[in-house]
Write a structure and sequence with these properties.
The protein is α+β, with helices and mostly antiparallel strands and 324 residues long. Helices cover 41% and strands 26% of the residues. It has 11 helices and 13 strands. The protein has helices at residues 6-17, 26-35, 42-55, 78-90, 96-107, 112-121, 135-148, 227-237, 254-261, 285-292, 304-323, and strands spanning 24-25, 59-62, 68-71, 150-159, 165-167, 174-184, 187-194, 199-204, 208-217, 242-250, 267-269, 274-282, 299-302. The strands form 3 sheets. Strands 4, 5, 6, 7, 8 and 9 form a 6-stranded antiparallel sheet that branches. It has a 4-stranded antiparallel sheet with strand order 11-12-10-13, with helices on one face. The protein has a 3-stranded antiparallel sheet with strand order 1-3-2. The chain is elongated, with a radius of gyration of 28 Å. It starts with 5 loop residues before the first helix and ends with a helix.
Amino acid sequence: MSNKSRILYILRYLETQTDENHPAAIADIVAYLGSIGIKADRRNVSADIELLMEYGIDIICNTGRRNEYFIGERIFELPEVKLLADAVEASLFISPNKSMALKKKITALAGVHQAEEILSNTHVELRAKSTNEMFYIIADMLRNAISSQKQIHFKYYDYDSSKQKIFKHNGQVYEFSPYGLIWNGDNYYAIGHSESHGKIITFRADMIAMPTMTDIPAIPCPKDFDISAYANSVFRMYDGPMREVTLKCPNSLMRKIVDRFGEAVPVEAVDTEHFHAVVTVAVSKTFFGWVFTYCGEIEIAGPQEVREEYLRMARIIAGKSEKE
């Protein structure tokens, strides 16, 4: 192997094999180079390391009985790599096999020793992850379609009563003009215009099957279309007329309100134990269901017609329970 590549192999060795707790002496590097067929001695290895440092590589030298070297600042610091690895592990739209492969690539940014630590100490809530091994390809195709303003065609999965995946509408091919991708609730969604629906809708990316890129121009995204506002209305409380609703809540639920509606939500004290929160939501069964989960702790204070619709639904549920 050519000695001309020696400095590149030294850099690779330092990046993959060293960190603050695992420095390498010149002798270690010389031995590594010898193992891959590159002749080197202490003098030229030391000169190569100095050249790398002059170039801007953050190589730290521990001086002592013998000089030891390790990579200092990396593109991603260890806490950042850990955070990325945890995010991949927790993402439901990435299959278990792809999660492990991606985690190994991410943790390699920290070097082999810290990678082992991250992989052995990553523990997240065990939840059902996607089994769609094609997700990477699907997501990449959606991004390409968005940037090139082209349609993609695909089939879409559903589940039958036996939990078997089936194609929706007997294998209908959807003609879709994607406008954006949204990560919400641990799933990835494509937002765009569906020809068969005749409007803008969302598809869960990991439920897309057999996608093909076309040369058909996409239906142009309306100039006044706000993807963020659309995502808020669809994912926060799903479809329904957007209304400004006042909620009466106990002070102990302030964090829940902020988590759901953000820190900018207008609030006002009602008494020493309660506050009003004014929220903009799609008034729907999903919104009412969310209120129900608090078993009366959250009260719809207004508007009156929204309050009455909520109470009407409560009576329907109560009636069904009595019949059962």
